[in-house]
């Protein structure tokens, strides 16, 4: 999947989600061409809160390429959707003043 199809797929997924999930996500969802790693793990997406730039979700297209290079379109779309929903959970929890998902992530092997 090329980056343009990736962006189109992400936009289609976002359009199918309730608008309420995007409240105060003033930086929106941005697709970056790069790959990101955290130690030995690929980072597919990231929720960022910046005092100047606001609240933003970043999707790392390069990470998806490395992980899903030969996968079917369906597998790509499922991973994109899972990542968007995961990062939106970070956003919603942040608005609620909790961070349960980060606690869960720390327990993962």
Q: What is this structure, in a nutshell?
A:
Pfam families: Zincin_1. The protein has 109 residues and is an alpha+beta fold.
Write the layout of secondary structure elements.
Layout: H1 3-15, E1 28-32, E2 36-38, E3 41-43, E4 45-50, E5 54-60, H2 61-68, H3 73-96, H4 100-107
Parallel strand pairs: 1-5
Antiparallel strand pairs: 2-3, 4-5
Helix pairs in contact: 1-3
InterPro entries: Zincin_1 (IPR010428), Zincin_1_sf (IPR038555)
Protein name: Metallopeptidase family protein
Organism: Aminobacterium colombiense (strain DSM 12261 / ALA-1)
Walkthrough of the structure:
The protein is of the alpha+beta class. It has one domain: Zincin-like, CATH 3.30.2010.20. Helix content is 49%, strand content 22%. It has helices at 3-15, 61-68, 73-96, 100-107, and strands at 28-32, 36-38, 41-43, 45-50, 54-60. A 3-stranded mixed β-sheet has the order 1-5-4. It has a two-stranded antiparallel ribbon with strand order 2-3. A hairpin with a 3-residue loop joins β4 and β5. α1 packs across α3. The chain starts with a helix and ends with a helix.
The count of DSSP E runs of length 2 or more, i.e. the number of strands, is: 5
Low-confidence spans: none
Number of domains: 1
* Radius of gyration over all CA atoms, rounded: 14 Å
Mean pLDDT: 94
Please name the CATH topology. Zincin-like
Please tell me what the overall shape is. Answer: globular
**CA distance, first residue to last residue:** 29 Å
What percentage of the residues does DSSP assign to strands (E)?
A: 15-25%
- Spatial order of the strands forming the largest sheet: 1-5-4
Percent of residues in helices: 40-55%
InterPro entries: Zincin_1, Zincin_1_sf
Protein name: Metallopeptidase family protein
Organism: Aminobacterium colombiense (strain DSM 12261 / ALA-1)
């Amino acid at each position: 999947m090329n980056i343009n199809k990736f962006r189109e797929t992400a936009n289609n997924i976002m359009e199918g989600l309730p608008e309420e999930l995007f409240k105060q996500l003033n930086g929106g969802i941005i697709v970056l061409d790069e790959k990101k790693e955290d130690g030995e793990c690929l980072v597919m997406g990231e929720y960022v809160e910046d005092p100047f730039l606001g609240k933003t979700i970043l999707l790392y297209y390069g990470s998806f390429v490395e992980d899903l290079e030969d996968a079917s379109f369906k597998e790509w779309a499922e991973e994109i959707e899972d990542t968007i929903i995961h990062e939106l959970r970070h956003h919603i929890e942040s608005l609620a003043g909790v961070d349960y998902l980060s606690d869960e992530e720390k327990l993962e092997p």
